[in-house]
Amino acid sequence: MAEDRDDDTPLFEAPPIAEQERMCEAMLFASATPLTVAEMAARMPRGCDPAEALMHLRRRYAGRGVHLVRVGDAWAMRTAPDLGFLMQEERVETRKLSRAAIETLAIIAYHQPITRAEIEEIRGVSVSRGTVDQLLDLDWIRFGRRKMTPGRPVTFVVTQEFLDHFGLESARDLPGLKELRAAGLLESRPAPGPGAENRDNDEQEEGAAPGQSELFED
Length: 218
Fold this sequence. Notes:
Blueprint (H helix, E strand, L loop, with lengths): L16 H14 L4 E2 H7 L6 H12 L4 E6 L2 E6 L19 H13 L2 E2 H8 L5 H9 L3 E3 L11 E4 L1 H6 L11 H6 L19 H4 L6 H4 L3
Antiparallel strand pairs: 1-3, 2-3, 4-6, 5-6
Helix pairs in contact: 1-3, 4-6
């Protein structure tokens, strides 16, 4: 016959907070993408509090060569910004976007959630399907909720991958011209001549697009 329990010790006792920190640390270092609190909690023993463990972990890494940073609603380990120059030889060359894609991305980031028609109204030119598909393929934008207007058009919003690429916690802190040029996504080019057609294609968009400086004002 099993002995009666004569104390209040829970059947499933959570590991000490220091051990929970180690668990979160291990998962974040091993993950190729940022992890949410819910994702970490699902892998940890019952009773663990990854949110509290992350706060302790973030303080422990403050001032070190690697920081614990928040990316949207997820967390990731990142090299300290002032030590980024040490990684320059290991960086992968970033694919440059067309001028149309750059401006469309900026409009979505600043005005999300936004419909295609609203993007075209701001830009003053049509948005080609290829431009939107390029941003979707890069996982920098995604479909949002449908707008409660006639026809219920779909909206676009930026993704966690977009925030992670620019080191942002949220879309409220958007990149300016300097950040885009440093990432290789924007180059200074002369504006198109007066005879340029009002179409959204890569040939026209190699010039400065209408409203570009206003969208990315430093």
